[in-house]
Amino acid sequence: MTVTADRRDLILLEAGEGRRYEMGGMTAVFKADEVETGCGYSVSEWLLAPGFEGGGAHSHTANDEIFYVVEGKPDILIDRIWQTVLPGTFVRIPGGVDHDFRNRSRAPAKLLNLFIPGGFEREMPAIVSWFQTQAGP
């Protein structure tokens, strides 16, 4: 739900609400993006199923990316180094730096994600399609 208060846009979303993208062992739920933020940033929640191996190393030339680990013990690849991170861990990945994330643990993992500036969410339909082709027939 988005409401207007004092000429500012206020967003109030309950747990699980937002624009949802399913990608096999990973789900992204976008809470705010270019529509709500004037392309200043986007905020999303990434849910990783146990055993999720990631999508492959990649970088975003147009965006810095921030991760905050909410639950679980995911691994984050930064450049060429994988590191297991715990809840409360904060990671800022500058644009152009290769990265990935996975969840080799037996429990779900959840990460809060910010893209600065916003606009990354435009890529989500193509990313979902890519994951679908990787799953095979």
TrEMBL record:
Lineage: superkingdom: Bacteria
Q: Where are the transmembrane segments?
A: none
Q: Where is the signal peptide?
A: none
**Coiled coil stretches, renumbered:** none
**Residue ranges constituting the Cupin type-2 domain according to the UniProt record:** 46-114
Q: What is this protein called?
A: Cupin domain-containing protein
Could you tell me which species this protein originates from?
Brevundimonas staleyi
